[in-house]
Amino acid sequence: xxxxxxxxxxxxxxxxxxxxxxxxxxxxxxxxxxxxxxxxxxxxxxxxxxxxxxxxxxxxxxxxxxxxxxx
Length: 71
Description:
Layout: H1 2-11, H2 14-17, E1 19-23, H3 26-30, H4 35-38, E2 39-44, H5 46-51, H6 55-62, E3 68-70
Parallel strand pairs: 1-2, 2-3
């Protein structure tokens, strides 16, 4: 039953609801998406980071509360 699955999912601890791997583009950083709550492993490429121009987002990228892996 779909309703039971949704209820079960909502009762799970937040860390168990995260997906394993997430590829993040510049929009995720610019919009300050809660990436650490969405996935266990976050990936991007250097070109994405170089697209970011605004000072606030650049400052946030320097102190991320999770490890950002580059491919």
